[in-house]
């Protein structure tokens, strides 16, 4: 196959409910949609789901735009390849920048599976025909507001809830949710804000008594040592998100006993190709895996649903319905969850139509690379 041209669309969408984590706050997102055209006119779509500012990770929408336009797409365009992993080789020399790479990689997989006539999930080695979705809930102004958010999503049937925590918003809200909602599958995500100060360790240790499925990314991304020390002290599995940008990071975490569960984000890991490799390594080491999200629009969400169908993804993923995030999605049909169950599409490629009119209405900036 050969990609002959690409179009980049910077698209803005408002969230239906403002989202706050320990690292940032947002009411709208700007993601870059990547449209690849092959020699025969087939089209594959991908999504760069970088946050706007450098608070979750170093990348921003602007850095992704530059890296993709100047380095990733020019290397891909005109090169002949047989498989997406080979296409990913065209940007192998670019260090870092996983979110930018992920958007192009996803478009390559969508294009390839479309042309091969298979659904993306099957092309990736997926074995499940449905996946279980949980929801991720942000820090709310009050505990009552949080309880209301949890009620709304458990009423909708979601079987797992993840709560964002931060110092001062941890043991108390988590206990309140636990008391109100009984044995709900509950976990927490700190986005790397805790340190190993006495106060912080006391809070994290107290959470060990809240019957949580996991504590996600308590410490800073590169602080494997603190994660290992905490894991040795508590029974609740420590889950890594920001710490694992590459398969090498995963091997490091495993070697240091710093990881109990892996959150695989397609965007954070640089695309479906490296996410598959991480899945395989985790499986070899009996590390449970689930798929995290970055509030993707429908294109990135479809890729997340597809990879969640692989056998190692044994925990509920953040692949909630489109309606949890946006009033309208960029794909048709939008992603639907029935009691937290999302059906994996089987049609060739992404398995959804792309709503190009809606994309055009919400595009702030676009560019063409290639002819
Ligand atoms: O840490 O998982 C995270 C959103 C933005 C940045 C970081 C995270 C998140 C989420 C959202 O938790 C998960 C979703 O897409 O539903
Ligand atoms: Mg996280």
UniProtKB/TrEMBL annotation:
Gene3D superfamilies: Enolase-like C-terminal domain, Enolase-like, N-terminal domain. The keyword Metal-binding applies. It comes from the Bacteria. GO terms for molecular function: metal ion binding; O-succinylbenzoate synthase activity; racemase and epimerase activity. InterPro entries: Enolase-like_C_sf, Enolase-like_N, Enolase_C-like, Mandelate_racemase_C, Mandelate_racemase_N_dom, OSBS/NAAAR. Its cofactor is a divalent metal cation. Keywords: Lyase, Magnesium, Metal-binding. Its EC number is 4.2.1.113. GO terms for biological process: menaquinone biosynthetic process. Residues 143-237 form the Mandelate racemase/muconate lactonizing enzyme C-terminal domain. It is an enzyme of class 4 (lyase). The keyword Glycoprotein does not apply. NCBIfam families: menC_lowGC_arch. This is o-succinylbenzoate synthase. It comes from Microlunatus elymi. The gene is menC.
């Amino acid at each position: 196959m050969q990609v002959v041209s690409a179009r980049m669309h910077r698209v803005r969408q408002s969230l239906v409910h403002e989202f706050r984590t320990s690292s940032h706050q947002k009411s709208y997102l700007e993601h870059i949609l990547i449209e690849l055209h092959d020699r025969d006119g087939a089209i594959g779509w991908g999504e760069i789901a970088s946050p706007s500012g450098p608070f979750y990770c170093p990348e921003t929408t602007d850095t992704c735009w530059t890296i993709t336009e100047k380095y990733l797409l020019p290397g891909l365009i005109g090169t002949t390849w047989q498989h997406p992993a080979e296409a990913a080789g065209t940007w192998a020399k670019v260090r870092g920048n996983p979110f930018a790479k992920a958007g192009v990689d996803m478009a390559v997989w969508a294009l390839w599976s479309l042309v091969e006539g298979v659904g993306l999930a099957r092309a990736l080695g997926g074995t499940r025909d449905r996946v279980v979705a949980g929801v991720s809930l942000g820090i709310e102004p009050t505990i009552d507001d949080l309880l209301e958010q949890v009620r709304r999503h458990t009423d909708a049937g979601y079987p797992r809830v993840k709560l964002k925590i931060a110092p001062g918003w941890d043991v108390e809200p988590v206990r309140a949710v636990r008391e109100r909602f009984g044995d709900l599958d509950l976990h927490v995500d700190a986005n790397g804000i805790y340190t190993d100060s006495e106060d912080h360790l006391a809070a994290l240790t107290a959470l060990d008594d809240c019957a949580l499925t996991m504590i996600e990314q308590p410490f800073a991304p590169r602080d494997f040592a603190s994660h290992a020390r905490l894991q040795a002290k508590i029974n609740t599995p420590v889950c890594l998100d920001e710490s694992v940008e590459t398969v090498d990071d995963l091997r490091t975490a495993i070697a240091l006993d710093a990881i109990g569960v892996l959150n695989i984000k397609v965007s954070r890991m640089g695309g479906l190709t490296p996410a598959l490799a991480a899945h395989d390594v985790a499986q070899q080491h009996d590390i449970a895996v689930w798929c995290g999200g970055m509030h993707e629009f429908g294109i990135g969400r479809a890729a997340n649903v597809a990879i969640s169908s692989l056998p190692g993804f044994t925990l509920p993923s953040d692949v909630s319905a489109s309606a949890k995030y946006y009033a309208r999605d960029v794909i048709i049909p939008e992603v639907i969850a029935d009691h937290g169950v999302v059906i994996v599409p089987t049609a060739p490629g992404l398995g959804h139509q792309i709503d190009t009119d809606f994309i055009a209405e919400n595009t702030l900036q676009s560019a063409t690379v290639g002819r």
